[in-house]
């Protein structure tokens, strides 16, 4: 039985056998049996490469952060995660530059400022993720659409 640590574009955690192309975390979300008991534990939601240096960790270790897996970067971004500034430094720098352009900022923000905004934007309202109805023709390429209870 797979762990409930695969992230959907909506940020939900599901148990499927699909392998991910990225890993990441939101803090400790699981109990000593590996069961997910909370949606979020920290404000900093990041995505990391699957292999970095000589680091090796056991997934779902008690009292250690919950390893999450993403099918693709688009899924991670849609779920509200950002690239790690250590293992994905070039992606993180590009993310910061794009963030600044999209928000008409002179300088790219640091991690703390970005994480503060992302944390607010991905917050649940009455137990559901905030969405915004838009005309299909106005959407940019690559967005996820919530359609009939799925992305």
Strand residue content: 5-15%
Distance between the termini: 24 Å
H and E string = EEEEEHEHHEE
- List unreliable stretches of 5+ residues: none
The main sheet orders its strands as 5-3-4-6
Brief descriptors of the model:
alpha+beta; 8 strands; about 150 residues; two-stranded antiparallel ribbon
What can you tell me about this protein's structure?
It is a single chain. This protein has 151 residues and is an alpha+beta fold. It has one domain (6-127). The chain has helices at 73-79, 89-102, 111-121; strands spanning 6-7, 13-14, 22-25, 46-48, 68-70, 82-83, 124-125, 128-129. The strands form three sheets. The protein has a four-stranded mixed sheet with strand order 5-3-4-6. Strand 7 (124-125) and strand 8 (128-129) form a beta hairpin.
What is the compact description of this entry?
This protein has 151 residues and is α+β, with helices and mostly antiparallel strands.
Secondary-structure map with pairings?
Blueprint: E1 6-7, E2 13-14, E3 22-25, E4 46-48, E5 68-70, H1 73-79, E6 82-83, H2 89-102, H3 111-121, E7 124-125, E8 128-129
Parallel strand pairs: 4-6
Antiparallel strand pairs: 1-2, 3-4, 3-5, 7-8
């Amino acid at each position: 039985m797979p762990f409930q640590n695969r992230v959907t574009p909506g940020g939900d955690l599901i148990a499927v056998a699909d392998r991910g192309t990225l890993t990441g975390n939101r803090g400790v979300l699981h109990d000593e049996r590996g069961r997910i008991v909370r949606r979020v534990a920290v404000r900093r939601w990041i995505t990391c490469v699957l292999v970095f240096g000589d680091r090796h960790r056991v997934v779902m270790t008690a009292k250690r952060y919950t390893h999450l897996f993403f099918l693709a970067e688009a899924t991670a971004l849609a779920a509200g995660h950002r690239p790690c500034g250590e293992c994905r430094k070039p992606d993180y720098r590009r993310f910061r530059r794009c963030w600044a352009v999209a928000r008409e900022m002179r300088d790219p923000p640091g991690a703390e400022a970005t994480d503060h905004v992302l944390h607010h934007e991905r917050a649940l309202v009455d137990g559901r993720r905030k969405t915004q109805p838009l005309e299909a023709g106005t959407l940019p390429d690559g967005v996820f659409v919530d359609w009939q209870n799925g992305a």
